[in-house]
Design a protein that fits this description.
alpha+beta; Alpha-Beta Plaits; 4-stranded antiparallel sheet; 2 helices; elongated; Cytochrome C biogenesis protein
C-alpha cells in the first residue's frame, strides 16, 4: 500500500512547541490548503529512566523519573519525512527524542 501523507507525533517539553512550530512552518511543513501553522498538541505524562551512559535533559541517571510533556501532532507529505526529522532533531532538547511517524490513509 502506498501512502502520500503521514502524521508526526513528537513528545517534547511545552516550551519547545512554538520554536518547533515556527521552524516547521518556515519550511512550509504545516500548510494544509489555505492555512498554515496547522498543528495540535496535548499534555501527557510519562516515565523514563536515564541509563548510566546518558546525558539526560531531565531526571537523574539510573532513577525512574516522571513528568509532564506534550505530544505535538501534524500531517505532512510522506516524501518529506527525513527533512522533518532533521528539523525536529535540530530543535528538540532530548538526547533521544520520541518521533513517531504514522502512515495516513486519506
Amino acid at each position: 500500500m502506498n501512502f502520500s501523507y503521514v502524521k508526526f507525533e513528537v513528545l517534547l517539553p511545552e516550551e519547545y512547541i512554538v520554536p518547533l512550530r515556527d521552524q516547521l512552518n518556515k519550511n512550509r511543513v504545516l500548510t494544509v490548503g489555505e492555512y498554515d501553522h496547522v498543528v495540535s498538541y496535548t499534555e501527557t505524562k510519562g516515565y523514563w529512566r536515564p541509563l548510566e551512559s546518558s546525558d539526560p535533559y531531565s531526571g537523574e541517571k539510573n532513577k525512574v523519573a516522571f513528568g509532564l510533556e506534550c505530544k505535538m501532532e501534524f500531517k505532512s507529505p510522506y516524501k518529506r519525512i527525513e527533512e522533518i526529522r532533521n528539523i525536529i532533531k535540530s530543535i528538540h532538547p532530548y538526547e533521544e527524542p520520541v518521533i513517531n511517524v504514522v502512515p495516513l490513509i486519506t
